[in-house]
Amino acid sequence: MRFVHTADWQIGMQAAQAGARAEEVRQARFAAAARVVELANERGADFLVLAGDTFEDGAVDPLLVRRVVDLLSRASCPVFVLPGNHDPLGPGSVFRHAAWREAAPKVRVFETPAPVEAAGAVLLPCPTEARTSMEDPTARIPARHGDARIRIGVAHGSLRDHGFEVKPDDFPITSGAPMRADVDYLALGHWHSTLVEPGPDRARLAYPGTPEPTGFGEKDSGHALVVTIDGPGRPARVEGVDTAELTWTARDETIARDEDVAALRAAIDAIPNPGRTLLRLRIRGVASPAAAEALDAVEEVAAARFLLARVERDEVLPQPRDAASWTAAVPDGVARTVVERLLALAADDQEPRRRRVAARALAHLVATARRMSS
Amino acid sequence: MRLRSIALEGFRCFGPKTVIGPLDERLNVIHGPNGAGKSTLLLAVERTLFDRPDSTDTDIQALVPWGADVLPRVEIEFSMPEGTFRLSKAFGRRGEARLWKLEGDVASPVREGATAVEWAREILGGQAPSRGATKPEHRGLAQVLFVAQGGLDLPERLGPGASERLRAIVGGTAVDPVTRAMAAEIDRQYLASFTPGGKPKKGSPAESLAEQADRARQERDTAKADWERIDGLQDAVARTADAVAASERKRDELHAEKQRLAPRVRRYRELVQQRDEAQRAKEAAEAAFREIAERIDRIGQLRRREDELRAALRSAESKTAQASQTHLQARGAADEATRRRQEHEERERAVREAEELAAHAREFHDAAAAIAELEPRLERIAKLRGEIGRLEEQAAKIPDLSGRHIKKLRDALAEERSAGEALEALKLHVTVRALRKTSVEVDGKTIDLEAGATEKLDSEGSLTLQVGTLAELAIAGPVTDVTGARDRLTKARAAVRALASELGSDVPEELEERRARRAEIVKALEVHQARLADWLGDAETEEELQKRLSSARARRDGILRLHPNWKAAPPDPEEQARAASASREDFDRTARHLRREEEAARSAVDRAAQALEQARAAEAKVRSDLEGVVGELRATAGDGCTDEERARKRMEQSVALQRAEDALRQASAALEEFPEDPTAEYERVDRALQDLQDELPATTAELGRRQQALEEALAAAPYARLAACEERLAEIERALDRARLDADAIALLHALFVEERDRATALLFQPVAERVVPRLRRLVGPTVSEVEFDEQFRPAGLRLRGVQDRVSPDDLSFGTRDQLSLLVRIALGEIVAREGRLPIVLDDPLAHADASRLRRFLGILEDASKHLQVIVLTCRPDDYRGLAAGRFLPLEHPGEPPAAAPGSP
Q1: ipTM of the prediction
Q2: Domains, chain B, ranges and CATH?
Q3: pTM score, whole prediction
């Protein structure tokens, strides 16, 4: 038996970090979702299961619900959808949309914890009815009572004993839940990074992660899982498949010498597929006038090439050792004294923002001087 | 450069050649009345030093004298370190320029035409205009040193010739052109983001973004509220759905309960009906029995009552008659008491007459006593008055002398005596004793002397005696001041006479005696006066005593007219008073007794009347009650039955009542199987069911509405809108952070530039300030501590001691501002003149100075003339007479005043 396990599509999610590219980022989530459906079709999956948070919120545009249902209807296998904490059941739930009824029974929403048979296995859903809960959702999985079929639990929540800090009302699930509930595989959703425990060859529980990354700094996301269980009592084998449409790259760089800027430039040049990459570059350190000029070029290149380039260099302060080269950029006299004072402020002021303001003023003054002398 | 002379010919108002000079190398005052051409003179010097003479510019053409057809010509002679020169320019289309070098009387031409023009222009750093005549900015240092009337303010922008020269000499450049351009650019950017006062400017990028952010935040908050409202709507739907389900469950429960209660309610109601009917029958029987029984009882009662009342009426009638008799008797007694009282009161007149007689006796006695006392007293007083008059007369005759007066007389007499003795001592005393009869001629007067006779002769100074024919003796004493002694004596005598006249005698002892006598009289007077006061007693005057006496006599006589016999036998007032008093007491006592008796009798009448009234009322009451009882008995017994018939009827009704009570008891026993009325429970259930059924459609409709509201809210996709708002806000806030950083950077740059530029400017202008500040203190006082300049050397502000804020020149008085500008021009001139003396030409510069400032300013001009050749043009030369040195040159020229305005033929 083979099925595709996915979760956390977060359709309709806002993308404040993406700025003007927010709509493209939202569209990319559909593209990734389509890849998941195609994956199920390609692999001949017996069914596709979404373990919660298909939608970012219960109040998304109803058209999005229709588009998602249409997309799921393109699957050549049954599709099971579990409401998550972002799209719980209840009055006004997205799952009350008429499109779901129209797509049934091929596409089926788990509205109750009642077991559902699929491809000879029994699916044990734990649908979510609220945004928060202090109860373990898997506690609702009924006992086996001698049932010899493959038991697959489907739930949405956080592993509370897995080394991460988990809020008590964030649907806490214990790592021992598969054994306690006596399931062969616990298909989880909620975490955006992929996690398979204890391993891909004999998995008892897994988070597929979101198929499309949701922002900078998110690790190991952009996957769906193909799960194979050869029979009752046999281990579940899990294969992670890339599904992401866009890449979110965040780099924190520190520069101290002109060479560091050159290295940074080279690293930026080496990033593949920049047109589908959102780049956040945080630069700190000290710069000579030449390095500052080179950073201008880096910023310009990034802006030109990447889908989105956010270069944050307010923490780059003038190199105190290069005072002479900074002062040389302006005529002797008043302007030079101003440069000296700005250098002192940028280096010594107790207030970090005042240091940044001084650095910015210095860069501005030098640029103005260059313009005036050219 | 030092000007030596200026010659003008045919230049505007100047006709024939006029020479002003020779000029002093330090101080010159060129004076002339208004219209004499002082301003023209300044113009002539400027045009000659800086302009091409052949320019066709209208400004140059206008130099041609009014109404004349000659070329205006100006010649300036001046000294330079290289020598002495004469620069001559004739202006007009055929204008020319020539430069000579003067050595003694020899003038050698050195330049002409354009080279002469250029050479001259260079002296004060002038520059050629691109076309036409020069403007002030082309005239180099003349912009500072040549000051037209009313133009003391330095120009807003010095021409390059002046500013470069000044900066080069003053101390270099404060701000180079590139830096100035940078500062200007930063200023421009600063003003794009901030107001001149440093506040964020509306419309600046940061402010626009802040406004956008505010708007976006508001939109986000609205969208978020809409989104959050979904939770509330969902909760409301869930709650309402729960309420509908609960209501439906409750409705079913109530319905079942109602079904269970219905048959019990029916049975209960039947039993209740039966009981109620039995009750009503019993009550009817009770009423009928009660009616007949009560009637029988009532007839008996009324009959007994009628008998009682008739007996009572008889008794009341008897009491009324008795009370009436008593009342009549009391009235008779009261009338008798009144009569007795009135009779007694008529006797009071005799009592009053006795009292009046006693009063007369008392008054008569008192008047007689007063007369007896006053008559001798008044006689004594009259005698005393006569004595006092006599003493006062005596005292008036003796002057009131004091010891001081007498001493003064004694002193005058002593002085007279002393003066007489002094005079006698100075005279010649000759005693002639005739030994025989002879005659002696003394100073022409013949005295015959018998033998042995002695004649004493006195003389003053000298005496000539001729004794018969025997001898002539001339006797002379020493030279003495006889006249002075005589004058002293005369004065002393006059003083004695004056005092004697005043005091009445010139004998002190006599005066002493008079003084003692007068003292005795005065003392006697005082004794008499005291006695008189004593005799007057409480009266102010004798007249008052006289009036009292007259009054007493009148009273006595009046009483005697009423009682003539009292003259012979005066009454005893005490006895009369006692008799009157005894009569009064007896009368009053009897009157009081009679009044009390009368009051008692009247009270008895009132009581009897009251008793009579009460008896009558009681009688009427009994009569009325009797009538009522008789009426009621007639009505009660008016049923047409006899007493027996009524007794039988009562028995029949008693049997009927017994039967009805049995029936009621049976019905009540049947109802006891119900512990309580099931109807109430049934009705409660029914009402609850009804209420629930009434409420349920509304609750269901509410659920529908809430579901619809939720669906409508969801259909608006509030999360999508919130997401869009959040994204937009994040983008704006990022841009705003950047813009604020940029704005803060520009503000910082601007502030640093201002600070550094000010610091550099202050250093640059230090030498100027060092000259201006002490002189300004000399002029306006010691409070000035600092003067600040702008880049064009214009005074930008003053710092005053004790004043925190900088004072703008605009806040100064007109005169002070002028004087400050003049001081700055002089200071700049002095600094430039380090490289060689320069002229400073001032056209009436102190027109607004008061006399005190003018005087102090002359000192400053003298001081300045150490380095500058000061040339003052004025129409008030007297203002400058206070200059210690200086040459006064009248502006006289043979040219006539213009006959016509410029441009006239």
Answers
A1: 0.89
A2: 2-172+180-184+761-890 (3.40.50.300), 401-503 (no CATH)
A3: 0.53
